[in-house]
Amino acid sequence: MAAAAVLVTLALAGCNASEPLAVEAPFNVVGHWTGSQWAKLEPTLGGAMNLKSSNLCQRGADACMNAVVAEMTQRINALGCSQLAPFAVMYRQVSIEVRASAEAHRYRVPAYVVHLDSVFATYYFRALDEWRSGNRNAVPQVWRIAFSAAEGQRVSTLGDMLLGMNAHISRDLAFALASVGLKEPGGSGVPDVVAVNKDIFRSQAPMVALIKARYDGDLNLAADLPKHVSLSLVPEIIARWRLEAIANARDLINARTPAARLEVETRINDVATLRSLLIWRETSLKHPTSTNATRNAYCSAHDN
User: Fold this and answer.
1) Which of 93, 118, 137, 155 has the fewest C-beta atoms lying within 10 Å of its C-beta?
2) How far is C-alpha 135 from the geometric centre of its chain's CA atoms?
3) For 194-214, what is the mean pLDDT?
4) What is the pLDDT of residue 19?
C-alpha cells in the first residue's frame, strides 16, 4: 500500500572523506510573531550544548522548556481557528511531556534533551514565521506543502497534524540533531533521543482531547487514518521516522565535502516531500466546502 509503505524507514547511505562541514548557520529571529523572551534566546541557539552559557536553552536548563512552551502558546493564540493550529497544539503537548520528563530526570542527561528540544523547535518557529511573513521561498518545501494544505483547508484535521509531524520529524529533526551533535556528557545522546518517543506517545490522549474540544469535534484518529494504516501502527511509524532522522543526522555530520552534504540534504528533503504528498492524498477532503464549514463553525463556537 503506497501510503503505508511511504511511512516506513528508507535505506540510508553514508559519506566518506576528511573534515566534517559546519552543519547549520546561526538562527535569525523572523517575523513579529516571535515573543520577546524567545527573541532573546533564539539567536544564540545551535551547536553543542554549553553548560556555561548565559543562554538558559543553550545550557539545557529546566527553565528553557517553560520558554519553549510559552512561545508555542503565544503562537497558538495568534493562530485562532486557522488549520495551522492543530499541529501547533499537538507539538506543544509533546513539549509539555518532554518538560515533565526532564524535570523528573527520566533522561540520562536531561540538559541535552532540553537543549535539543529548543533547537528543534526553532526550525518550526522559523518556518512558520517565514510563511506568515510571505517569504515563502525561505520555507522548506515540505513545510510549504503542510502550511498550504492547512491554510487552503484541503485536508482533514488529522491530515494537518500528520503533515506537520512529517515535516518536523522527517526533515527538521535530522538537521537539529546534526546541529547539536549526537553526543552528550558521558556518551551517546541517541538513547535519550529515542526516549523522547515515550513522551510523544504519552502526549497523544491529552493532545487529541484538546484539539477535538477546540478545533474539530469530529476528530477521530482511528476513523480518519487511511483504512490500511491502523492506529496501533502509528507509534511504530513515528519511531521509525525518528530513527531515520538519527541516521540522517550522522550522514550530515560525516559529510566532508559540499557535494556530499548537498546529497544528504537533498535525500532528506526529497523523502520528506514525497511522504507529505502521499499524506495529502490520503487525507484530502472529499467535500471540503461542507466539511470546512462545519469545522470552522465548531471552532468559532468553542473560541474561549
Assistant:
1) 137
2) 20
3) 95
4) 52
Unique residue bearing C-alpha cell 529533526: 173
Question: Is position 158 within any domain?
Answer: yes
Cα 163 from Cα 277, distance rounded (Å): 9
Write the pLDDT tens digit of every residue in 77-123.
Answer: 999 999 999 999 999 999 999 999 999 999 999 999 999 999 999 99
Of 168, 158, 180, nearest to 229 (Cα)? 158
134 contact partners, CB below 8 Å, separation of at least 6 = none
The yes-or-no verdict on residue 4 having pLDDT over 50 is no
Of 59, 282, 31, nearest in space to 149 by CA: 282
Residue 1 in domain: no
Residue 45 near residue 58, CB atoms below 8 Å: yes
In the predicted model, what is the mean pLDDT of the chain?
88
Instruction: Indicate the number of domains in the chain.
Output: 1
Please choose, from the candidates 250, 258, 266, 268, the residue with its C-alpha nearest in 3D space to the C-alpha of residue 21.
Answer: 258
How many Å from the N-terminal Cα to the C-terminal Cα in the chain? 41
Helices and strands of the chain, counted as H and E runs: 13, 2
Domain interval for residue 173: 32-287
Please check whether residue 242 lies inside any domain of the structure.
Answer: yes
- pLDDT of amino acid 224: 82
In a domain? residue 199: yes
d(CA 17, CA 118): 31
**Percent helix, percent strand, percent coil in the chain, to nearest 5:** 65, 0, 30
pLDDT digits (tens, 9 = 90+) for 140-158: 999 999 999 999 999 999 9
